Amino acid sequence: MSSSKTKRSMLARLIPGLGSLAKRGPSGWMVITGLVIVLALVVMTALGPWLTPYDPIKHHGPIRAAPSLQYPMGTNHLGQDMLSRTLTGGSIMLQVSALSVLICFLIGVPLGLFSSYVGGMLDSTVSLVIDAVYAFPGLVIAIAIAAMLGTGVINMALSIAVVYIPSYFRIIRSQVLSIKEFAYVEAAKASGAKWHTILSRYIFPNVIPSIVVVATVNFADAVLTAAGLTFIGLGVTKDVPDWGWDLTDGRNYLSTGAWWIITFPGLMIILLALGFTLVGEGLSELLNPKLQR
Amino acid sequence: MAGKIELAIVALVLIGIIVASATMYYTTTVISNLSSTSTDVSILKDGVLNLTSRMTDLATIMGSLATSVNMSTGAISSLESRLAEIELSLAARETLIVGTTDSVELTLDPAQAYDYFGWCILQQIGSTLVSVKPGSATGADFQGDLALNWSVNGNLDVWDFTLRPGIMLPDGTEFNATHVKYSFDRAIALEPSIPEGAPAGLGYDLIINRTEVVSKYQVRFHLNFAFSAFLGIVACRASTIVDPTYAPIAQVNYTEGGPRASTPAAFVGPYVLSKWSRVGGSDQEIRLDSNNNYWNLVSGYPKVKHVIFRFYSDAASLRLAIESGDVDMAFRQVSPTDVLDLQNNPNLRTWWGSGAFIQYLVFQEKRAPFNDSRVRMAVAAALNRSAVCQTVFLGLSKPLYSIIPPGMLGHTEAFKELGDSNYTLTRSLLAQLGYNENNKLTFKLWYESSGHYPSSADQALLYKEALEASGVISVTLDHADWASYRANRNNEIMDAYVYGWYPDYVDPDDYSFLYWASWLHTNYQNATQVALYDQARATTNLTLRAELYDRIDEMAVQQSSVVPLYVSSAWAVTKPSIYGVYLDITQDMRYWLISR
Amino acid sequence: MGLRSYVITRILLTIPTLLLLLSMVFLVMRVLPGDPVALHFEKKASQSQMDEMRHILGLDKPLWGQYADYILGLVDVNYFLAHGYPNLGKSMQTYEEVGGQVFSAFPATLELAIYSMIIACMIGILLGVVASKSYNSVLDHAIRGFGTVTYAIPVFFLGIVFQLIFGVYLHWLPTGLRINPNITPPTTITGLYTIDSLLEGNFTKFLESLKALVLPSLTLGLILSGIFIRLTRTNMLETLRLDFVTAAKARGLRETTVTYGYALRNAFLPILTMMGLQFALLLGGAILTETTFSWPGLGRYIVTRINFRDYTAIQGAVVMFGVFVALVSLVVDILYAYFDPRIRL
Q: Are residues A257 and A222 located together in one domain of the fold?
């Protein structure tokens, strides 16, 4: 099958797929709402640089000015326009969370599949290591990575990924352990199929739904963790607009009455995390066979 | 299911109402039946009415009796509460609750303590031979504490101190010269085994050759070289006089409750450390009580008899604490925004003073392009100090044009020669090396990101902006946490980095050397400047000293290895009833001078 | 496999995991750039001073020597009996016994975790059950919405909002610390102020420490309740559809009995697992809350110590955390095995 044909058929399946989602009741609506929110925020951030009335980094205005006609969302402690910062500030968070999910996927999924399929000594050892990583405080890992590899988007994503891979691993493992025993897998093994065929053709497709759910939770958590990392000083430098920085700084100025610094980026972060969570929630309900009636 | 419970409640209420009304109905029916026998009933009624009126009279009398009893008990209780209030306010006047974000790092032993807050507590519980007068602007106005007066020889290497008689040490002996000799000998003896302590850091063994007991109240210091700022050393916390009974010359590491922890009993300061608890390696509560052995009790100090320190995790929490009245005084660190905001609060009072903390930009001369002084000067000229001071520090920091802060001897405006946002100079200097709009000077500017210095990220952003506004410089920002920052500094991998400095003693001698300090790892040397510095050390002639520091500054501008950025000021926030807060150049808070 | 053998197997499996954790943190700390020796000297230090410092901190020993000290210290029973806490070495920054430091910081985090858990479970499970009973109604959607939104709020955002409203504007509750500055904390028996003040018989102290606990545990509890709402709701929906529930209703049992006595009890196991999971996470992850509320717990301890590259302190804190996580997951697994025999196979 040529790639263009596959793409078209996937796309062709996607649109009516969304429609069928709507027919599945409130869970379907949850998924759609979540997707719409996320998409809207992504588009807003992508188009941000063209939409902003002011340069989000340059400090034009008066310091900590309340929202007015000139600065609809006020200015922060450096005199930067909050509207511009809110429109463009999501890029770091989106990059970090997307990257962390990607890393988790690329490392956690094959590891989980392979380890639990092979079983035996290998599985026990890998599970042991994963459990140890799981018990490691995430903050120490984050600081260690920042100290060893420096700071930046990639390293932030790496810190978050390392903390999340055990979750992927565990979920995949529990799924694979039960799927392994199914009759058709046994049959495939008996008919001489290679392990990578079995994994990719039989087991992996069954695991995808849970992976997707965990991925969305991962996304939501990554957004919040990225904000947390910035809070303790492990974020990016300030020459890029970032909601995490506004949240950290805004906290210091809330007591002086400057509510607008923390509120708008805070709402955006909540919205973003919410969007991903809605998708995950809805999907896990849709895919849960025990809820079918 | 939720509906069922509500239904049940409603049903119960209905039943109650029904029962009540049924009872009432029944009663009224019975009474109306009874009224058929009217006459007997009416006589009975009159009798009852009489009785009831008598009873109402009785009730009124009893009521008025009760009211008067009430009133008297009320009067007594209000008197009691007034008394309690007076007692409380008297006690409160005796107690000061201070909120801070600092914490004692290690110990209160003068041979080991080298952190700001350790020195702060040490100053409240111990005394030195001399100290800086409260309110001093230069840091050079000394007053005698345990010493009455002092003199120095012409070579500035033999210092004599006459001690104050009649001071009792905690173990009952009278303070005399042997105790001074013991304290300094102890500090020097413990240096090898306490390498991180203040005596080691300040180089007591390098400065002092020996301490001699001349007579009971006369002590003499023989120095290894001429040192005009020696009084500053004698006034600093590492020179706190200790009682030998409680402070042995034994190498004992600090442990909570261990021998070192008992050292606080060894001093004769205004206060006694009566409680010190730590949780997880940080202070939780420190309590100071007035010291009956204080050598200066006649002065009436300490005014406040009890000082309780409470520790908060950051400036935001401290602000909330002082604003809600949980503490009486907040000192270090309330953020600039918060203190300016609290200035408008009628329930609080803010205090201001000069600062001694400075920050400066450092260039790594081993890494191109900063091996050329023209590049360094060009970058220094492009800085905009006032933008940073106004925007980031809201005017509470002042631009600094000399490594020595204002108020002190030797302060100049030398770096004004390069100017601020002096882009013409920047461009012309860089043009000499071939840098222009199409071939920009690029480098990485580093800053520290774990909160060791204030607002590092914001500062870095503004520095970058100012430099890039010249049109010929392109700056990438990078940051590291304090430990990694230090490691990077020592490994000399940072192009340019922002650093800070707190003085150990307030004297230009403790600032001027920063231009060539080896531990800054700038790889900059200048023998002429060092010679001028040593010369300034060797004279007490203030004019000569000022001139020498002036020349050091001028040379520093031409080399721009270390570029001063700003000097901070100091502030404290208190309740309005508090006064006696001195914020002078020493950055010391003398809690015994505070009263309310 | 019987319950006993399962328990024993589980306990035995915990030991290698812990050992691996200890070794990992040892290695990670040594690999980190930044030298605890150099960090003792703010300004200048000669080579001899640095060498002496290195010797004092025990860092001049070979790596396997330091590792051996570390592991042997952990199993030093005499020390444990003498001090009441394990030998985790001396802090490289303050020379205090790390065991003592960690054991003094841990109860604060534990207390916060317990109360947050109580609030999260109470709100979460109750609302989850209510939502599941009125499936697809407005109430259901409202509760689900609430559960989803609360989890998406960053903890320090919610924290400072509460501090401002209840601490500053209304002045009802303290904004930080474990107890009012004017009151001495109760004598340490468990380290939990609420329990200790009750044991002491001092009701004022109990009230004061409870007041200080309200805001931080409310913040954390509200945020966590979202998870429990959704989890309870999903599990209750599954269980309510099962045959035995219909059978019970058909037999004429009351709604409340069916819901709480039968359905919830069966749906409880995954909730229990989640409780254990979240509790363990709370212990190590309360850093943001602890910073916001000046709470002197293990989270703040780790943050301050790691800036000084205090190897022994971080090792000690991670060991403490790891042991607790292992304990909690062990207890949860055993309870799970007790209630669901299928697991033991």
A: no
CA dihedral C31, C36, C42, C45 (to 10 degrees): -100
Residue C289's closest chain B neighbor by CA?
B313
Shared domain check, A212 and A140: yes
Same domain, A207 and A285: no
pLDDT digits over B176-222, tens only? 999 999 999 999 988 887 888 888 888 899 999 999 999 999 999 99
- A151 with A208, same domain? yes
pLDDT tens digits, residue range B91-107? 667 899 999 988 887 77
Q: Is B595 exposed, middle or buried (0-12, 13-18, 19+ CB in 10 A)?
A: middle
**Mean pLDDT (whole number) for C296-320:** 85
Exposure on the CB side of residue B473, measured as CA atoms within 13 A:
33
Residue C15 neighbours by CB under 8 Å, 6+ apart: none
What string of DSSP letters covers B133-145?
PTT-SSS--EEES
B411 pLDDT above the threshold of 80: yes
Cα B76 from Cα B67, distance rounded (Å) = 14
Domain boundary pick from A239, A264, A279: A239
- Looking at B190-335, list the stretches that DSSP marks H as alpha helix, in order from N- to C-terminal side: 198-202, 204-207, 230-235, 315-323
Q: In terms of domains, do A205 and A190 share one? A: yes
A83 and A130 share one domain: no
Total structural domains in chain A?
A: 2
Residue B19 CB coordination number (10 Å): 10
Count the neighbouring beta carbons within 10 Å of the beta carbon of residue B67: 11
For chain A positions 210-239, those within 8 Å of chain B (CB to CB) are: 232-234, 237-239
Query: How far is Cα A82 from Cα B453, in angstroms, rounded to an integer?
Result: 26
Q: Does residue A170 form part of some domain?
A: yes
Q: Are residues A124 and A235 in the same domain?
A: yes
Q: Please report whether residue A169 resides in a domain.
A: yes
What is the residue-averaged pLDDT of chain B?
85
C103 to chain B: nearest residue by CA? B280
Task: Taking each helix axis as running N to C, give the angle between helix C298-306 and helix C311-339, from 0 to 180 degrees, rounded to the nearest 10.
Answer: 150
Long-range contact pairs involving C136-140 (C-beta distance under 8 Å, separation at least 24): C136/A25, C136/A26, C140/C233
- Which of B311, B294, B312 minimizes the C-alpha distance to B303? B294
> What confidence category does residue C306 fall into, taking pLDDT thresholds of 50, 70 and 90?
confident
Shared domain check, A251 and A276: yes
Mean pLDDT of B382-391: 93
Domain membership flag for residue A5: no
Q: pLDDT (tens digit, 9 = 90+) per residue, A132-151?
A: 888 787 777 888 888 888 88
- Contacts (Cβ under 8 Å, ≥6 apart) of C329: C276, C277, C280
The Cα of B294 is separated from the nearest Cα of chain A by a number of Å equal to 41
- Residue A285 within a domain: yes
B392 touches chain A (CB under 8 A): yes
Domain encompassing residue A277: 24-89+241-293
Count A/B contacts: CB-CB distance under 8 Å. Answer: 69
**Contact of B594 with B96, CB cutoff 8 Å:** yes
User: Distance of alpha carbon C77 from its chain centroid, rounded?
Assistant: 26
CATH number of A223's domain: 1.10.3720.10
One DSSP character per residue, B334-403 reads --HHHHHHHHT-TT-EEEEE----EEEEEE-TTSTTTTSHHHHHHHHHH--HHHHHHHTSTTSEEE-SSS
ipTM attached to this prediction: 0.83
CB contact under 8 A, B320 and C48: no
Three-class SS state of B166: coil
Contact A270 C288 (CB under 8 A): no
For residue B13, the tally of other CB atoms under 10 A from its CB is 10
Distance from CA of A230 to the nearest CA of B (A): 10
User: Are B284 and C296 inside 8 Å of each other by CB?
Assistant: yes
Decide which of A239, A254, A279 is a domain's last residue.
A239
Weakest mean pLDDT among A287-291, C127-131, C221-225: A287-291
